[in-house]
Design goal:
It contains nine helices and five strands, in the order βαααβααβαβααβα. With 217 residues, the protein is mainly α.
């Protein structure tokens, strides 16, 4: 599992705070609502054909369009009373660490039950190392200023809190690009170029090969 950023950036979405059965019944809009801002028992109930169509096409385009339509055309006219489960009032960092630990443990348990090994990886982002950014990356960082808290959370996750008897193979790649200065690695806050992927894949291989070899000894 190679993750971290989405667990942080979307930590308050309804989809992370409801049971799977409810998630399946919801529309894309309902699952994508910001849970932390719903301090009254309201959620958006949208079943219109156009939004269903938009959500079914290309993922990024669909999400972008339905959110735009919701915010600009529908938000004020389709709010219906609906009970929302209470949101645990705890610090975001603890929430993030607990969620990662729980998610990883479920997969590690699945691996143990089905005889396959698991490796859990914390990914890097623009703000997780102290390298000098390229001009393009500097622009991306300025565009991502509203997500500075997310960068900080990713940096502050305590790997030791994620470890347990089930999940023993944990890799911290947050500082993977340390010392690689002035070169463009990221093309947005977290996604990397082919150059960046080459570096990350080498790091992952260095961990995986010994694990695989150990099985054949």
């Amino acid at each position: 599992m190679y993750d971290g950023w989405n667990d942080i950036g979307e930590r308050n979405k309804i989809k992370f705070n409801i049971e799977y059965e409810e998630f399946k019944e919801n529309t894309v809009i309902e699952n994508y609502e910001d849970f932390s801002n719903l301090n009254i028992e309201n959620t958006i109930q949208i079943r219109t054909g156009i939004l269903t169509f938009l959500s079914d096409i290309n993922y990024k385009t669909g999400i972008g369009l339905v959110i735009f339509v919701r915010d600009n055309l529908i938000l004020n006219s389709n709010i219906i009373k609906n009970e929302v489960k209470s949101f645990q009032n705890t610090s975001d960092l603890i929430l993030i660490e607990n969620r990662l630990k729980n998610n990883w443990e479920k997969v590690c348990n699945l691996g143990e039950e089905n005889s396959f090994k698991t490796v859990n990886i914390i990914q890097p982002s623009l703000g997780t190392s102290s390298r000098n950014l390229s001009n393009e990356e500097t622009i991306q960082m300025s565009l991502s200023n509203f997500r500075m808290d997310d960068f900080n959370y990713l940096k502050k996750i305590d790997i030791k809190k994620l470890e347990n008897d089930k999940c023993k193979n944990i890799i911290d790649l947050r500082n993977t690009f340390e010392g690689i200065n002035g070169k463009t690695i990221f093309f947005d806050a977290v996604h990397v170029s082919d150059y960046g992927n080459d570096i990350i894949s080498e790091k992952i291989i260095q961990v995986l090969i010994p694990i695989i070899k150990n099985d054949f000894q």
